[in-house]
Design goal:
With about 375 residues, the chain is α/β, with parallel strands linked by helices. It has 9 helices and 17 strands. Strands 12-15-14-13-16-17 form a 6-stranded antiparallel beta barrel. Helix 1 packs across helix 6 and helix 3 runs antiparallel to helix 4. The radius of gyration is 22 Å and the shape is globular.
Amino acid sequence: MSKHGKILVAMSGGIDSTVTALLLHEAGYEVVGVTMKTWDYSSSGGTKKETGCCNLDSLQDARRVAVDLGFHHFILDLREEFGDAVIENFVEEYLAGRTPNPCVLCNTHIKWNALLKRADSLDCEFIATGHYARIHTLNDRYYISKAEDLNKDQSYVLWGLSQECMKRTLFPISELLKPAVRQIAHDRGYDDLSKKAESYEICFVPDNDYRGFLKRRVEGLEDRVKNGLFIDKEGNVLGHHEGYPFFTIGQRKGLGQAFGKPMFVSAILPETNTVVLTEEEDLQRSRMLVGKLNWQKFDFAETGKEFVTKIRYKDAGHQSLIKQVDNNLEVEFIGGVKGVAPGQSAVVYDGDDLICGGIIYRSEI
């Protein structure tokens, strides 16, 4: 009989989830490991070897740890749910001229729901993952805070977690720096995992070529969107492009032609297959509208107070004022911000604590 009860641990085969399982096992939990199979990269037609959590090597690494420590390990097949919810949304968003963040959608609607369902079937009170983030409570509300290791912090992609999900989740490595996590793996005899390269690519696009993925996924897409127009902010034609879905807001490289000076994608107009190019200073935006909100630390917008809003994962964050309008959030940037991309996530912080998050609908100058 374990002294802490039974816990389901999501194990990708990587170092972070492995150390998570090690620490919980050593702390006296009855660990049950589960590896989620979300995608078969071979079906995408990509040219590079698959990486990340869904390849055979990763599955075997996760199972090896379970065998070494003597706990049960299961493989959870989520390919159908993942394809319906994450991949189809990914394609639809690009076809709508927006830039999606599939990791947020996967965490919110696929992984946590699947983990909790499996935890219930196995009589596990809690689930645990190797994410770098903290969970705190205030006035009976659960919320995410940034991890001790700010270089690895993953709070941004966890804004969609519900109160019930956070209530039953543990992040055992949240107080550790990455070198300490590597040292733990090394000391326990998993030196191969401590030296394992990490992937920052989208799991179903491991060659990092989302344009190629879209072309393979959507039959006839290239012919449908070819010969699109580049225009400037006054509407003057600057040239032609291969299709609006293959561009993102703020993009400078890979435009397919030279313009005599650096030009950036500032707007995407799918109705006319048009991409608006401007100089960098014209990317500046002062406001944006955010929808599909999920409130964490608070359940309302505290107006008149400055918060920090991140508009992408590696964004340092920007001072801003927020105002709730119906079910949406108006964000006003103090000093402005460049490259606001509809479809991406906006996450609002009070210090290290996550107030709320949502999807960027539109931005304004």
